[in-house]
What does this fold into?
Amino acid sequence: MKPEKEKIMDGKPYPLGDLDLKKDRRKAKNLLHRLNVTEYRMTRNARLILEELLPNAGSNLYIEPPFFCDYGYNILCGDNVFFNVNCVVLDENKVTIGSNVLLGPGVQLYTASHPLEAQMRRTHKISKPISIGDDCWIGGSAIICPGVTIGNGCVIGAGAVVTKDIPDYSMALGNPAKVIKKLE
It folds into this structure.
C-alpha cells in the first residue's frame, strides 16, 4: 500500500484525515501565523520563516503578507518570485513556479480537488500539479486550477480562471481563460 504522500503526487484519491499530513499542515499553519501576524513585514525573521516554510524556493523570493498555503514544501520556486498580498496556494501536490514570476494580489493556485462521485467525496480528496513557467505575470485574483501548466513568458489577466494549459508567450483572459494574443 502506498503512503498517502505518494498517492497525492500520483493524482490518486487519498483519504481525508491522514495523521502525517495533518502534522505537516499544522507546522505550516504555525509558520504562516508567525509570518502573517507576528512579522507581517519582510523582515529578517520573516525571511527565516519563509526559508523554513518554502524550503524549495530560489533566491529573492518576496511574499507580501498575508499569504496562505497548505504545506509549503510542495511549492518549488525559481529565483525572483513575487507574491503580492492575499495569495493562496493549495499545495497538496507540486506547484512549480519558474524564475522572474509576478503573482498579483489575491492570486489562487489550487492543486487540491475532490472526486466527482459523492460517496468518495465524503472520505477522499485528489490533487494535480500546477506549473508556471519563467517570466510570467499572473494578474490579481486569477485562479489557476488543478493540473494546469502555464508556459514561459505568459500574462494571465486579472480575474481569469485558468482551467486548461496555456502555451508559451500567450496572454489569456476570462472565465474560463482563453488565449487572446501571442506575445513576443
Observations:
- The first helix runs from residue 4 to 9.
- The domain at 15-182 is CATH 2.160.10.10 (UDP N-Acetylglucosamine Acyltransferase; domain 1).
- The radius of gyration is 16 Å.
- The longest strand covers residues 178-182.
